[in-house]
Amino acid sequence: MPDTENLMDTGAPTTEIGLDELWTEIRSLGLESYIKDLDTDGYTVIPPEIANPDNLCQRLLDVCLSIAETRSGVRPDLLNGKSLNTNSVVGDTLKGILLEDPVFEEALMNPALLAISTYLCGYDLVLSSLNFQAKSSSELKFKLHTDTRLPSPLPTRALLCKCIYALTDFNQDNGSTVFVPGSQRWARNPVGDEKEFGEQTGQHAIPTVAPAGSLIIFHGNTWHGAYNRKVSGLRASLHLLMQRSMLRCTEDFYDRVSEEMLERNSARFAILTQQAIIPPYIDHDDQVAKITRALKYTSTFEQESGIALSSKR
């Protein structure tokens, strides 16, 4: 296990509940070197042999293309297609898809994704949003920014992290994500010319090189953006925003996840899909009912995992 002093410098969860259990899982999955990359650079790229069990990413891609076809009437053409939203730096986006196919449950419950996002944000981690992006060629770069989206200075400990499944190859010509290594330590947002990157600027931003099937995970404070895609076709990716439960979520999964979905997954799935969050209430009786509901899911997770969350809720 890395020494506590160094972890404190990177905002890693040195005092999180369940840290011993988490490190056991990290070692069993062979993720130690990726944790080191994350601590040093603020991001890591997990290769397909770890991140892509049972050809997960190809199955994700097939389902996402089918959903896009159902919604728009046109199936995206990965080799020759153009984004319908050519003025966007991220291209076309499919939102609200978690509940549409069990393959997205697999993406969320991927052991490597959970271990590293838990390392950053703790066991009370929840899914804030899950969406598919299809990005075509354009002249638009995505300027450097952070995903924490709070005024500077930012909290050093991660409040959130982003997990990106590369469903097609990521590289500079394909319009890959770029990172400024170590920028998570600065605990602030880029300003002015700092948002620019490329050969004409002094900003040291590294384009991600990741074959299809890889999983990219980064600290919410890490400065990142994306190159414009220079070749024909589409760059496809699935994005999961993971965050501490105290933050307001982008998508609302509370009381929308079916019992069938909950039963076919471990108890942690309920925690991840916001079932143990206590939403706003309108009176005393409503408050009691919502707290009782949340504690039901928390207790089930604690019994199954042996990790106590009650003190955090």
From TrEMBL:
Matching InterPro entries: Phytyl_CoA_dOase-like
Taxonomic superkingdom: Bacteria
SUPFAM superfamilies assigned to the protein according to its UniProt record, in alphabetical order: Clavaminate synthase-like
Cofactor(s) this protein requires: Fe(2+)
GO function terms (MF aspect): 2-oxoglutarate-dependent dioxygenase activity; iron ion binding
Protein name: Phytanoyl-CoA dioxygenase
Organism for this UniProt entry: OM182 bacterium
